[in-house]
Specification:
alpha+beta, 132 residues, two-stranded antiparallel sheet, three-stranded antiparallel sheet, Arc Repressor Mutant, subunit A
């Protein structure tokens, strides 16, 4: 395998499929994975998603916030720094470990996605398709 990579647990993939994320939410999720890899996996919890870069992915500016909220509601990401007045908000991919900002000690993944199940009807359809 060439270059950096991120291991995404099967449960996260199934969760994404069951949630039926919008295309924009999926693009932002992939952008944050790429951001994580570009920092050698050391900046989870401090990942930036600048609007101008997201617009470069074909996401309209007025669609970015709803897509981010969709990912937060799904438990896939968590906003760790709100950002304001030209400050960029920061995010955590909840299925990956983070580092304590002060000590640098590794902190286990919050796995918020596990506490945010998909709506029952969609979950049942995904299980039927995946054979689980």
């Amino acid at each position: 395998m060439e270059g950096p990579f991120v291991q995404v647990p099967r449960g996260v993939v199934q969760h994404i499929l069951a949630r039926r994320l919008s295309v924009n939410a999926y693009r932002i999720f992939m952008f944050l994975l790429e951001e994580h890899m570009s920092h050698a996996g050391t900046e989870n919890g401090r990942l930036a998603a600048p609007y101008n870069q997201l617009e470069g992915l074909g996401i309209r500016r007025n669609s970015i916030r709803p897509a981010l909220l969709e990912l937060i509601e799904a438990g896939l990401i968590r906003r760790t720094d709100e950002g304001y007045m030209r400050q960029i908000a920061r995010y955590e991919l909840t299925f990956l470990h983070t580092r304590d900002r002060e000590t640098g000690v590794s902190v286990a993944a919050s796995d918020l996605w596990k506490r945010r199940p998909a709506p029952p009807s969609e979950k049942a359809e995904t299980q039927a398709v995946s054979g689980v």
